[in-house]
Amino acid sequence: MLLFTVLLALLVLGVSGVLHLDGVLAAFVAGLVFNLTSTGAERTAEVEIDEAVNRFAVLPMFVLLGATIPWTVWGELGWAAIVLALAVLLLRRLPVLLLLKRPLNLGWPDALYLGWFGPVGVSAVFYLTLEAEELGLPETVMAAGIMIVVVSTVAHGVTSSAGRLLYRRLTGETTTRRSASGG
């Protein structure tokens, strides 16, 4: 199954490149279609392998990101960049999930957990790099975007264990119940 998904992704990227379409959007749509046509058992059987491949691909990106942090530009941006990063973390998902709590039939713990734990990852740097090159954005925009990713990574990494424990305590969820439900 893992080999099939990799081949499907490469095929979709290749075809979208030949047709001059957005490859990332095409791969996303292919993933949605694949998700609709595959069974839950097929997806859960590959979770451990998928997690290992994800870490193998993402961890080097974070090492590169850490090695290329624009400290000088961050110093020039000052506290405004930190305020921007914190505002993005607090206002990007949390208010939306709290507003949609009732229509989505979420309890307070669920809405807060889902609203907070949505880190801005290396894919944001990828999109920012594409747009910065295409639009000719100044170096400060790229530096501010990288700061948002770094602050998000640190904030969500530091709060993940405590957040998970608090969520379990508030919902009464245990590890046994979670694994028995398949999630």
Task: Supply database-style keywords.
disordered C terminus, 183 residues, mainly alpha
What this model shows, in words?
The protein has a domain at 71-180. The chain is 80% helix and 0% strand. It has 183 residues and is mostly helical. The protein has helices spanning 2-18, 23-37, 40-45, 47-67, 71-77, 79-91, 94-99, 108-116, 122-135, 139-171, 175-180. Mean pLDDT is 84; it is low at 176-183.
Work out the number of β strands: 0
Q: Give helix % range.
A: over 70%
Mean of pLDDT: 84
- Low-pLDDT stretches: 176-183
Dominant shape: globular
User: Order of SSEs, N→C?
Assistant: HHHHHHHHHHH
Structural class: mainly alpha
β-sheet strand percentage: under 5%
Let me know the largest β-sheet.
Answer: none
Number of continuous helical runs: 11
Question: Nearest-angstrom radius of gyration?
Answer: 19 Å
Measured distance between first and last alpha carbons: 19 Å
